[in-house]
């Protein structure tokens, strides 16, 4: 039910529960906790939206920024668990409307797990983009630069740009079913040359099951997400709603950032009330990213990840260079290109540094979500038993 | 590439060794016109022999290198000439003063270079350094500068050579392996190009002038070098993706590798001692030699293909194309692996989907999963690992990286499914499939150290262990849920006839099945239940009462019993108390005893029928159980038959040695009525266990019949023969026996007297 390292956590809960239950007026304490939670959520996301000025910040939607986003998520999640599970009478959670809200929340968590997997596979694709970019860097850093080097770079960059486009379109067309790593298609092998060219890109990552769609998954997560009203705002319905919203937003941001299976029709707006204090930074993020996303959809790039966008731009520009290249190269042009190559190399370096930790973090988020789900289920179970419906 | 085909001068494609016209754009204008050198190459069809033939002719006589105007340029010859030329490239000692003036500063560098060249070229440069007849020669493009460092001849040779390579590249794909000699020649050529570039670049260091003058050549070289490597890359991919033809292991390869078996055996022996070092060709064979027949079933490449892959990889890597090589390899293998999993019936499902699927469908997926997982652990992973090691035999770190990347992806995908199962809603029927998965994971963990390279083994182990833990916890939950099912069974209608209760059947069959997984369950409980108990407050209130009964049980069974046995006991006790409560539902105490006997006997039979449960429960428990059953038997006997037997006492019938007839009449009448009543009721009762049924009947007969017989023998003659006897003596002892044998059949019998006219 609970993995090793969680035993202590639950022990703590039960200890605290006993203490709290014995105290009168723990409702005030609960209200206070809830308020703190909302404030912390607001502060944390505000930091992401508008980083403190005196603090060197990472570019918006860069790998480092995404990692901060995930950290923020993990913090909120831990606090959420403390608010909802610790010191609570388990029967509270099984009473209406929570008996409906909590299972809905858990369902969102399950969907988030799939998104984690899809995103993880998207990051894997980005790793391949990085490899291709590295080939281009390697080739273009050679001197003297000749047709061979330029062609090698161009080949890699073309692969890169095509792969990005395919990763993005994946699932959109009928062909895309062939493209994804889903089992069984593989018509490309014996097909004529054209398909083969695309064949190289088919398989940058393992991918999800056939027909799985990130856009639909996000959509499904957003259904029934309604802010609690009236009395409910002071009950557990509130943190459950907040956490649901956070999961939804974070998953959505991940989906926009890295290649992800089937994003056609991805929502860009969620019906979250703007007057909620904690929600404002989230909405700010949403507006900013939605705008980027709309631009992106026109361009058909693989995602909003800052490094990837940069890579795409540099890639395009270097392809242009390659297309017009004639031996011997003009020194001025070479210098200009050298600058771009250095920039591309720097982008690769940032990917090299950031992608693996990002991958691990996504995995951590996954495990954390699984564990929390189990814990909440347990309490739910317990609550169900404690109130005796059985004769 | 299509363009290239178009430019072929009507020649039908030949073997690799024959050059083709290069695409126009590939030959920069300032170098020799390539077309000239190859025209009538079409003749050499069996070039293997042809080439060697021409080579002999051509190479011997040429002392000072002339530009061979050989219409059939052979690659070997070309290479040789080029190498010779390169080796004789400017060295300080040979340079005339003018050059020295020009490049004076570079002299020492030049020396180094000369050494380099020597190394590169091996024996070839021992030949007398040639004073190049070079320069001023005709031919287009080249500046007529006498101080040219590169002999014109070399330029022409190089050009010819490049045309040749270019021609090969243009010939289309998928030719690799068809003519091994050609492949070798091509690889040599690529290698030579790399050396040439190196040499030229180092020469070019000597002065800008050189680069200005021969930049075009260097450029062309780089271009064709790239083209050749791209060609290799494509061939590499095609080999990887399209040559998995050999499905039948070993034999096929042995026969296929041509050459005497003896030779191969020898070489394989040699290779097994220092594998990976040299001659990759025989590597797979040495690995597979004899003992491991299944080795080649996966990944299914023939030895030649593996050796070709190895050669190409080696060339690509040494040419600085390791990125490309690795990418192609990784993507192809990942795809192939995915396809294999699919062939094993493994479909991808999202976690969300699995939560929503019908259990029957999930069950099928689990069966496929277990099979695929075992296959991966047993065959696929080691196959992939060996393949990577063979193909990248000179680059162990690269092969480890590729293999771990691949296997990590597969393992994670497989584990994800297990995760989804562990997460799914718990219910009793899922226990066994969950345990199947648990077992598969359990088996693989200790093998992981040898399956996976260092860089990913810890990560994969952790992931596997985590998922295994979750499956274990799920299994415990499911198993413990049996308690809840038993508790929830609170029906108030007694089973007719005191028969075995469905709950007993269900529970015992479940337990018996579960005990087929006894070892696994023991492990699961041992490894994953402590935490569950420590933190699970969910069961706490109920648990206390069981704990009390636990200790009492524990006394009988020894102190160090497994948590699983304890849980099993708990379930049994719970079942017992449930049954006991149900037995109270019967108004007839005798029937209640029969009910307990039936169920008790059923439980005991099930336990005895399964060595696994038997071992868990222990003999003590069974003995105690049996004695309990005997107690119920006694209770029943007493309840039903002692009253009847009391009728048959001889006491109270005689007064002063004389039988009191009216009392006797009453006795017979009540006996008859009572026996009839018992028979009527108890023949509707059910004892389905034959042995128990016959035990009961025998024991009843054993007390009733002798008593009745003696009663009859003593008092029957009191009645007048005929009518009176007929009226009071309704049964002969044999009849009693017959009627007793009708008991517990579950047949509604009417009164004996009605049916007996």
UniProtKB/TrEMBL annotation, chain A:
Q: Which UniProt keywords apply?
A: Membrane, Transmembrane, Transmembrane helix
The subcellular localization recorded is: Membrane
Q: Which Pfam families match?
A: ROH1-like
Extract one GO cellular component term from the record: membrane
Specify the domain of life of the species encoding this protein: Eukaryota
Q: Which InterPro entries match?
A: ROH1-like (IPR008511)
What membrane topology does this protein have? Single-pass membrane protein
In the record, the note on similarity to other proteins reads: Belongs to the ROH1 family.
- Name the chain's protein: Uncharacterized protein
Please name the taxonomic classification of the source: Eukaryota, Viridiplantae, Streptophyta, Embryophyta, Tracheophyta
Automatic annotation (TrEMBL), chain B:
Which residue positions does the secretion signal occupy?
A: none
Sequence ranges of Low complexity compositional bias: 281-290
Q: What does this protein do?
A: Component of the exocyst complex.
The name under which this protein is listed is Exocyst subunit Exo70 family protein
Keyword Protein transport found? yes
A Pfam match: Exo70_C
Q: Which UniProt keywords apply?
A: Exocytosis, Protein transport, Transport
Extract the GO molecular function terms from the UniProt entry. phosphatidylinositol-4,5-bisphosphate binding
Which organism is this protein's natural source? Answer: Rubus argutus (Southern blackberry)
Q: Name one GO cellular component term.
A: exocyst
* Region listing for Disordered, in residue ranges: 1-147, 248-294, 532-559
Biological process (GO) annotations held by this record are:
exocytosis; protein transport
